[in-house]
What we know:
The structure is a homodimer. By secondary structure, chain A is mainly α. Chain A has one domain: dinb family like domain (Four Helix Bundle (Hemerythrin (Met), subunit A)), CATH 1.20.120. Helix content of chain A is about 60%, strand content about 0%. The interface of A and B includes residues 10 and 152 of A.
Amino acid sequence: MDHSELMVKIALAGWNTQISRAAQTFDTFSDADFQQQVSRGKNRIIYLYGHLASYHDALKETLGIGKRHRPELHAPFLQNPDDLQAVMPSVAELREFWNSIHLELEQLFASLSTEDWFKRHNAMSDVDFEKDPSRNRLSVLLNRTNHVAYHLGQVKLVKPEVLS
Amino acid sequence: MDHSELMVKIALAGWNTQISRAAQTFDTFSDADFQQQVSRGKNRIIYLYGHLASYHDALKETLGIGKRHRPELHAPFLQNPDDLQAVMPSVAELREFWNSIHLELEQLFASLSTEDWFKRHNAMSDVDFEKDPSRNRLSVLLNRTNHVAYHLGQVKLVKPEVLS
């Protein structure tokens, strides 16, 4: 295995670790728990869940490997801060969305060659890429992995309610 | 620039981004603010600050590129959870420690060649590394970068006290 293949493997392993930790953590919460804030006056769990799922739905377009399925979720989960008045899907629906998006990404990622990962992402022009080839798909993936860790640290502050 | 060099550049850029965001965030807090918890009943800011600095002090040994300066800080910041009774350095002393550790790492990282980054880290044997060469220094760096993001997300929940 050469260095490029190794790096892709390492980057994907990092992504998978964060996503599966996040999924496991969110799964410890009941639908009712999703209304809890991660800290007083801060985002609710439902917001961060929809935020990550929507951002990863858009990630396909950023990487140029697919289309967003739920662009209408960008308003409540990406363009705006958490808002009790916002129209959001049910937690059950969001759980399905989360699972389908991450399954789809897993399959899309598996279909990319090592070379593909070193190509530019869609959010930049060819000219800019020539100037700075480090702005490739792998760097986007690493960036999104840090973003998952960032919010996971917040969600981890909340204890699921123990229902007796 | 070949793919290996690119990857090292990307991984270092990710590390630098998280470290400078974290440093900037911690710097918004007064020494008194450092006693605040990131959420009710959770770690204080001083703990997370010392936790990251101590972990990065140890990172030199994990990567096999240097020695820990303050092994005695492992007890209060790594081996044990936050504890009001723990003996901790002053915030001023911790700020110096944070700065010196990250400056030292910056210099050590700059001295490593691309090839060095693909070598095994110290926490594993040669035999294991032969089985899984993805457990190299770069993967440790990416892992620690996620760890910074994880705790940064928590610290970001706290607003510095505005002193009038």
